[in-house]
Design brief:
Blueprint (H helix, E strand, L loop, with lengths): L7 H10 L5 H17 L8 H7 L4 H9 L5 E7 L5 E7 L1 H13 L19 H5 L7 E8 L7 H10 L4 H10 L1 E2 L2 E2 L6 H8 L1 H12 L4 E5 L2 E6 L7 H10 L3 E2 L5 E4 L5 E2 L2 E2 L8 H17 L1 H4 L7 H15 L1 H12 L4 H23 L4 E2 L16 H12 L11 H6 L13 H9 L14 E7 L3 E9 L6 H15 L6 E5 L6 H13 L5 E5 L1 H15 L3
Parallel strand pairs: 12-16, 14-15, 15-16
Antiparallel strand pairs: 1-2, 3-7, 3-8, 3-9, 4-5, 6-7, 10-11, 13-14
Helix pairs in contact: 1-2, 3-4, 7-8, 14-15, 16-21, 17-22, 20-21
């Protein structure tokens, strides 16, 4: 890693080492950039090669990040709180390291102003909301597509304004954007958005101050509060926001009077900062029921992070209403969580394993099993039910017998008189897929292939790889061979694996490496013990009673 250039003498030595033509002229030009950056305590960077040296990366790697961004980002969607989906473009780990260097060494050294409260150390939703306590009128404005509204040109111009030369300003802006926009997922996007919105914040805040109005912004949420005169300025404020290059989401814009619940970034501000009556009432009821019935009984949705989510809610109350938060905290720690922790360890490990796969997938997406239409009506089951089924599930096999005949497999779905069928995973899945896959000899790409719908909308070819036991090395190798062959097979849209044991770290690394390297667009579904317990429970309820 290159040391930062701190003096003009070091600048001269570095430029001399680059063997530049017209050295004296270039030195004078770069000295001006160096002094502007030194005044702001920012690192001087000459070009891409110099940035690579400072970030402990290679110039070739940075060029790949810039010229082939599709390979440097993992794109997926997560559901929004109300409706629709939010697209996340997450950078790969090497690119994220470079972006983190830019954030720590450049962006965090700049002043975003006193009106921005999001993504800034020492500021929070609380500091944002407390500026609007006990106001007659509170107006909440949501900026539509906040990050994507800031394009590459704006980012490049910002780096030039703070003192960087044209070459490195373009490089830095390319490294911080995806599809010519700030991405949701890059660590640099939040701070860059604050810095670029600084000018808008100052103009609107100045306008508000002259009219005795309070102004703050938390990411894409603008809040203005004051007296009854506030609503008459709504259109003027909207024009100022639009002149800054942003659009208002009219559906989320609200004007709240004193008689209603005035909520700012999730905090009620009518009289004092509060999490709200309903929030407190719900949390109090949850803790009461857990103390009465136990955590396993109350975890009805089989949430592997049930305990952590409750603790997160309590932490939120502690930040806003400390005295009440301490009461909830005492109740939480008076609960006996030992049995819950032991019984849910398997579920937690499986959930984290799958989440790790999701985080490390590249442009290919992982889908939940019930997004496949054949499984879409399978209900949730409780943690207790899942634990009760564990022994039965561990005894399931890929096939009914070691060497089934074609006749066995052709008619098994209509023959219900053989008990060995009910321990066959293909037989169980066949009741939902309407197909068992027939007999196999160990060298087929997949065990079952079907045409089905995803989310009841898109028909696609889905293959199933069934390996109940991954304890031995040969089973893991066989599982990976089938997975690898399936993802590289054209015509297969969704690769689904079914296993009753955990996918260990080594195998998981091989899986997401293969996913990342695959250039054919695929979707993936991983059915492990947790998901199969729901399928098996539904199967026994519907097909085994007779």
């Amino acid at each position: 890693m290159s040391f930062p250039i701190r003096t003009e003498s070091e600048l001269r030595d570095y430029l001399h080492s680059r063997s530049l033509e017209n050295f004296n002229k270039r030195f004078d030009e770069e000295k001006e950039f160096f002094n502007r950056l030194a005044y702001k305590n920012l690192p001087y960077i000459y070009d891409l090669k110099h940035l690579a040296e400072m970030t402990d990366a290679s110039a070739e790697q940075l060029e790949v990040f810039i010229l082939n961004k599709e390979k440097a980002y993992s794109s997926f969607e997560i559901p929004k709180k109300v409706k629709g989906y939010r697209r996340i473009d997450a950078p790969s780990k090497p690119l994220k390291n470079v972006q983190r260097w830019i954030l720590d060494n450049i962006l965090y050294k700049l002043n975003p102003g006193k009106y921005a409260h999001g993504f800034i150390p020492t500021r929070s939703i609380f500091t944002n909301a407390e500026k609007h306590v006990k106001k007659q009128i509170v107006m909440c404005i949501d900026i539509k597509d906040f990050f994507p509204s800031i394009n590459l040109k704006k980012v490049r111009n910002y780096f030039k304004i703070i003192g960087y030369n044209d070459r490195i300003s373009l490089v830095l802006s390319e490294l911080c954007t995806f599809n010519f926009r700030l991405s949701q997922g890059a660590p640099t996007s939040p701070m860059l958005s604050n810095l670029i919105a600084y000018s808008m914040d100052q103009k609107i805040a100045s306008f508000c101050r002259l009219r005795r109005l309070s102004y703050t912004r938390y990411a894409d949420d603008i809040t203005i509060s004051g007296g009854r005169i506030l609503p008459k300025y709504k259109n003027l404020i909207r024009k100022k926001i639009e002149r800054a290059g942003f659009k208002i989401n009219s559906e989320k814009t609200r004007v709240l009077c004193r008689g209603s619940c005035q909520r700012v970034t999730g905090i009620v501000v009518n009289e004092k900062p509060s999490v709200g009556r309903q929030y407190k009432r719900n949390l109090r009821a949850i803790l009461h029921n857990i103390l009465k019935n136990g955590p396993n009984f109350e975890n009805r949705n089989n949430d592997p992070l049930f305990r952590e989510r409750i603790l997160g809610r309590i932490s939120h109350v502690l930040n806003i209403e400390p005295k009440l938060g301490e009461i909830f905290k005492a109740q939480f720690y008076s609960i006996n969580w030992e049995e819950y922790t032991v019984q849910n360890q398997k579920i937690i490990e499986t959930e984290l394993s799958i989440k790790s796969l999701k985080r490390n997938s590249f442009t290919n997406g992982i889908i939940p099993f019930n997004l496949i239409y054949s499984f879409s009506k399978i209900p949730e089951i409780s943690t207790k039910s899942m634990l009760d089924l564990r022994e039965s599930i561990s005894g399931l096999k890929e096939k009914c017998i070691s060497h089934p005949t074609k006749d066995d497999c052709k008619t098994c779905l209509i023959k219900r008189d053989k008990d060995e069928y009910k321990t066959c995973i293909k037989y169980i899945l066949g009741h939902y897929l309407q197909k068992t896959g027939g007999t196999h000899h160990g060298h087929e790409i997949c065990d079952i292939g079907i045409v089905d719908k995803i989310s009841a909308k898109h028909g696609c070819n889905i293959c199933f790889i069934i390996k109940p036991d991954l304890e031995s090395g040969s089973e893991r190798d066989g599982y990976f061979r089938q997975f690898h062959d399936s993802i590289h097979k054209s015509g297969i849209n969704v690769v689904t694996t079914v296993t009753m044991t955990d996918i260990d770290n080594a195998l998981r690394d091989r899986i997401y490496t293969a996913m990342n390297e695959n250039r054919i667009k695929k979707y993936y579904c991983f059915i492990t013990e947790v998901e199969f317990a729901r399928i098996f429970s539904d199967f026994r309820e519907k097909h085994c009673k007779k």
